[in-house]
């Protein structure tokens, strides 16, 4: 199987200045220590702190199996400001995913979600309470490959651009499962049979979700900052395997 994390290499820095830094997080790397992933011994916060030689503050989160842009503040004050921007929906985020089936050209998903785990906070953030959740889906490419699955002689997949306007836990994973186009490699929200197919046939053991881009206005300079992350190796390998075009739509 492909090795997803190579901690002998420094984290790839996408953006760096005195108050903010962004990395291209590898698939499989936790942002920080978590009681629900006791098997992990290395974390993005720890690795970046050691690499830069200073304390770092993650201003948002990415799932362990999601790769791509992850933004850190380099001071407590900037961390508070940037977290407030995220909370107010002032940070524009774009993801790419490879999903099962042929998706619509474009689609808006307006489907409330419940939190998965108790995580403190106010009543609206606790398990059992529904929160509004919105995601825009745009299909970039579709493919059909001669790989039998179930009663079908072929398998169909889509490369989609996902733009969430809310930031709920596992929002993109749950929304794509809700419209019956689960993200490949997603557990537990995805299709276990498809996940097994990819593991057995392609030796693919990650989730095909990539945080492609974030854009925001810098709170001090008022400069519009856009940070884009190249796909990690495993995502690129699966794109090249499934789709006819060998070029990655990085923009």
Task: Give a short overview.
With about 250 residues, the protein is α+β, with helices and mostly antiparallel strands. It has five helices and twelve strands. The chain has a single domain, classed as Pseudouridine synthase, CATH 3.30.2350.
What brief labels describe this structure?
single chain; 251 residues; alpha+beta; Pseudouridine synthase; two-stranded antiparallel sheet; 29% strand; PsdUridine_synth_cat_dom_sf
Rg for CA atoms: 18 Å
- What structural category do the secondary elements indicate? alpha+beta
Helix count equals 5
Summed over residues and divided by their number, the pLDDT gives a mean of 88
Q: Into which percentage range does the β-strand content fall?
A: 25-35%
**Which architecture name does CATH use?**
2-Layer Sandwich
Provide the low-confidence segments as ranges: 118-124, 246-251
InterPro entries: PsdUridine_synth_cat_dom_sf, PsdUridine_synth_RsuA/RluA, RluA_PseudoU_synthase
Domain Pseudouridine synthase RsuA/RluA-like: 19-178
Pfam families: PseudoU_synth_2 (PF00849)
Organism: Spirosoma flavum
Structure characterization notes:
The protein is of the alpha+beta class and 251 residues long. It has a single domain (13-241), classed as Pseudouridine synthase. The chain is 20% helix and 29% strand. It contains five helices and twelve strands. It has helices at 44-52, 76-87, 171-178, 192-202, 233-242; strands at 13-16, 20-25, 57-58, 67-73, 92-100, 106-110, 113-114, 130-131, 134-145, 155-164, 209-217, 224-228. Strands 1, 2, 3, 4, 5, 6, 9, 10, 11 and 12 form a ten-stranded mixed β-sheet that branches. Strand 3 and strand 4 form a beta hairpin. The longest helix has 12 residues, at 76-87. It is globular and about 55 Å long. It starts with 12 loop residues before the first strand and ends in a 9-residue tail after the last helix. Residues 118-124 and 246-251 have low confidence and may be disordered. Keywords: Isomerase. It holds the Pfam family PseudoU_synth_2. InterPro entries: PsdUridine_synth_cat_dom_sf, PsdUridine_synth_RsuA/RluA, RluA_PseudoU_synthase. Residues 19-178 form the Pseudouridine synthase RsuA/RluA-like domain. It comes from Spirosoma flavum.
């Amino acid at each position: 199987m492909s090795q997803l994390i190579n901690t002998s290499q420094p984290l790839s820095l996408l953006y760096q200045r005195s108050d903010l830094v962004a990395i291209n997080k590898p698939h499989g790397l936790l942002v920080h220590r978590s009681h629900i992933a006791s098997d992990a011994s290395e974390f993005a916060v720890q690795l970046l702190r050691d690499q830069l030689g200073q304390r770092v503050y993650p201003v948002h989160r990415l799932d362990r199996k999601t790769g791509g842009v992850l933004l850190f503040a380099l001071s407590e004050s900037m961390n508070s400001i940037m977290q407030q921007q995220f909370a107010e929906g002032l940070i524009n985020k774009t993801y790419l995913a490879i999903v099962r089936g042929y998706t619509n050209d474009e689609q808006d998903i307006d489907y409330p979600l419940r939190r998965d785990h108790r995580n403190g906070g106010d009543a609206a953030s606790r398990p059992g309470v529904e929160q509004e959740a919105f995601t825009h889906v745009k299909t970039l490419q579709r493919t059909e490959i001669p790989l039998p699955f179930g009663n079908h002689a072929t398998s169909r997949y889509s490369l989609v651009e996902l733009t969430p306007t809310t930031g709920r836990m596992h929002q993109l994973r749950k929304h794509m499962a809700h419209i019956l186009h689960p993200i490949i490699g997603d557990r537990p929200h995805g299709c276990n049979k498809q996940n097994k197919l990819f593991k057995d046939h392609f030796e693919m053991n990650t989730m095909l979700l990539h945080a492609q881009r974030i854009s925001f206005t810098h709170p001090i300079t008022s400069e519009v900052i856009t940070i884009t992350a190249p796909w990690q190796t495993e995502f690129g390998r699966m794109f090249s395997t499934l789709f006819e075009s060998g070029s990655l739509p990085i923009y």
